[in-house]
Amino acid sequence: MKKLIVGNWKMNGEPECSSKPTKFDEIYPSHARDHLDIVLCPPSLLIPGMMELCRNANIQLGSQNCHYLDKGAYTGEISAGMLKNFNVKFVILGHSERRAMGETSEEVSLKAIKVSEEDLTPIVCVGENLEIRNAGQAHKFVSEQIEKSIATLNKDFIIAYEPIWAIGTGVTASIDDIRNMHIEIRKIIGPDIKILYGGSVNIKNAADILKVENVNGVLVGGASLDMVDFAFIAKAAG
Ligand code: PEP
Fold this sequence. Notes:
The protein is an alpha/beta fold. The chain has one domain (3-235): Alpha-Beta Barrel (TIM Barrel). The chain is 37% helix and 17% strand. The chain has 10 helices and 8 strands. The chain has an 8-stranded parallel β-barrel with strand order 1-2-3-4-5-6-7-8, surrounded by 5 helices. Helix 1 packs parallel to helix 2, helix 1 packs across helix 10 and helix 5 packs across helix 7 (138-150).
């Protein structure tokens, strides 16, 4: 299975960040990474300005969210169809930072269906908090979250396992924790769906994480803002 390296810039990105795909391609040229897919998910405002540069650098564009309807009176929202018009191919859904703002698995499921209908690929994020992990309930919690978040989805999707306590904290899940959780997720979603790990992935830990069985790529937050680091993480996929 081709590995997938996704960068989530979150709410970071000055206009000059639009040129980062070119910088990435200089460090890790497209001809040397046929075995990988690279996706950048910038703030939506930067997407139009990055389309051409991403195409030239063989990097795909992703969005950090979208609405589950096509259009209407939903101030501040953006639809999957609008994103598709700007060559977006992937949409991150149910990131824990959005779930913390009240997004439910039921909403994630509706969004995932809409994203699939537009022939884009949903990257559905799941992950437990520290309290749940310490209570020994992490596998059960994540299984339920997946079942609710992908409910009736029957097209291609990607799962990103992102333990909340590892996101933006500098604390990474142990290799054993990652392996065990990915085995559980694999049992639920079958052999053909990619499972990414996310949570403080950096240049030091990427190679070890990417070697773990059933880790088909990584979702990188902070370290994806620096193209030297992001390219190094992608190179670590082998
Ligand atoms: C993320 O935003 O999905 C993430 C994993 O962030 P970080 O790599 O900074 O922990």
